[in-house]
């Protein structure tokens, strides 16, 4: 079977997390991703959070699978010539530089379009046009400015950011969709275009249920939030809801057997109305099925603390996996709190390729996430990340068609090597 994006060539000017997430996903689907890196330095994450000295960090390897690396000094005149040839040969240029960096490199959109009218230029920025468009943005900044942090945590505590990288990786996923869409449109129009994903926009898209609740709040209290049942007034903005469900069905994280020593011995439990009678039977409260104080969802709202305390008495007698097995038999929505250790060791995730083992020439074997999107007619495999500049000569010859003499000339120019430090006089 042919991979879905075989024949698509990506010029990857991304670094850190948001951009590499995007280009890695495209590479998993078969695109030829050429990662352009600074000679002698490369993507800054190669050296960040290193757990083994002088070896590419997991931060880098887990975001740059299936790519080829070329080192190129784009300030060098010969380097600019090589970049121009790469633009001619590639379908998409992806970057997550700060605002204006491509222009200062001498390759604004207009020039790129003149070199290759079919080129798609895809960019990740912190903010879209507006008062903050020139500001630098990182993961947690995006979560805060996109509305996620203000609605995460408990109402009597600080706003919280989530461990899921919804600002960086989330925006990378959004950009990947934009690129594939632009590639499809190009099959009809024959033209390239610019694709932009702002991190603030991406986070807001993932926090859309909270924007929904902001509008509902104008028409009365949010009855599925715990504070309604506790008689606590709402303000003029969506509050932090703890572990309440965003889907309108009351839900909480409850202790399970072993919680005293295991920080992840918990289960998420939703008291979904259609299975309320089954919940009553499971926890040993059959009279609640007909009791007017508990039988209907509206009657239960002021009593959620009492109800979940009773459910927790039952969950504390079971491990999270035992509870899940029992509850799933009755279609009661629930989910164990899985630690990263449990996920890493989950054989079912290995079997589907969601967690993969990768062999690296200097690091050795390590585990990583695999492609989360499965296509029935497009195989997806995870191969190791490239060493810095590993494919430089290969790309110059096989992609650009340069001769040995031309490659030697480019090397001689210094365009592929770190700038030489001048000795002090």
From TrEMBL:
GO biological process assignments: oxalate catabolic process
Keywords: Transferase
Domain of life where this protein originates: Bacteria
GO function term, MF aspect, one: formyl-CoA transferase activity
E.C. designation(s): 2.8.3.16
Residues that hold substrate according to the record: 247-249
Catalytic-site annotation from UniProt: 168 (nucleophile)
Binding-site residues for CoA, renumbered to this chain: 17-18, 38, 72-75, 96-98, 104, 136-139
Listed pathway(s): Metabolic intermediate degradation; oxalate degradation; CO(2) and formate from oxalate: step 1/2
Similarity section: Belongs to the CoA-transferase III family. Frc subfamily.
Subunit structure: Homodimer.
Cited NCBIfam families: oxalate_frc, PRK05398.1
The protein's name: Formyl-CoA:oxalate CoA-transferase
UniProt source species: Bradyrhizobium sacchari
């Amino acid at each position: 079977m042919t991979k879905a994006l075989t024949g698509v060539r990506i010029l990857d000017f991304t670094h850190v997390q948001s951009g590499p997430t995007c280009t890695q996903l495209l590479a998993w689907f078969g695109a030829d991703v050429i990662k352009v890196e600074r000679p002698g330095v490369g993507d800054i994450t190669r050296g960040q959070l290193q757990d083994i000295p002088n070896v590419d960090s997991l931060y880098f390897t887990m975001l740059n699978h299936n790519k080829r690396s070329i080192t190129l000094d784009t300030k060098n005149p010969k380097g600019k010539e090589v970049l121009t040839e790469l633009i001619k040969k590639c379908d998409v240029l992806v970057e997550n530089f700060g605002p204006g960096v491509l222009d200062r490199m001498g390759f604004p959109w207009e020039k790129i379009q003149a070199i290759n009218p079919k080129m798609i230029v895809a960019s990740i920025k912190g903010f879209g046009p507006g008062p903050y468009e020139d500001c630098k943005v990182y993961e947690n900044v995006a979560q805060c400015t996109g509305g996620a942090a203000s609605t995460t945590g408990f109402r009597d505590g600080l706003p919280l950011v989530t461990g899921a990288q919804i600002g960086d990786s989330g925006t990378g996923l959004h950009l990947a969709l934009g690129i594939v869409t632009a590639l499809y449109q190009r099959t009809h129009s024959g033209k390239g275009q610019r694709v932009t994903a702002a991190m603030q926009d991406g986070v807001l898209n993932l926090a859309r249920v909270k924007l929904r609740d902001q509008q509902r709040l104008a028409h009365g209290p949010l009855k599925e939030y715990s504070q309604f049942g506790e008689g606590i007034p709402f303000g003029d903005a969506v509050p932090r809801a703890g572990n309440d469900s965003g889907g309108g069905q009351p839900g909480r994280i409850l202790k399970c057997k072993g919680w005293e020593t295991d920080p992840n011995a918990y289960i998420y439990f939703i008291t979904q109305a259609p299975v309320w009678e089954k919940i009553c039977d499971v926890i040993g409260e059959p009279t609640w099925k007909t009791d007017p104080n508990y039988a209907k969802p509206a009657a239960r709202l002021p009593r959620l603390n009492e109800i979940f305390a009773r459910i927790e008495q039952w969950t504390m007698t079971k491990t999270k996996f035992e509870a899940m097995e029992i509850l799933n038999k009755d279609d009661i929505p629930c989910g164990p709190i899985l630690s990263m250790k449990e996920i890493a060791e989950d054989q079912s995730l290995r079997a589907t390729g969601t967690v993969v083992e990768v062999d690296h020439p200097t690091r050795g074997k390590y585990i990583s996430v695999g492609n989360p999107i499965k296509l029935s007619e497009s195989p997806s495999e995870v191969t190791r990340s490239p060493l810095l500049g590993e494919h430089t000569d290969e790309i110059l010859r096989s992609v650009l068609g340069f001769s040995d003499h031309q490659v030697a000339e480019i090397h001689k120019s210094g365009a592929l090597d770190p700038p030489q430090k001048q000795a002090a006089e």
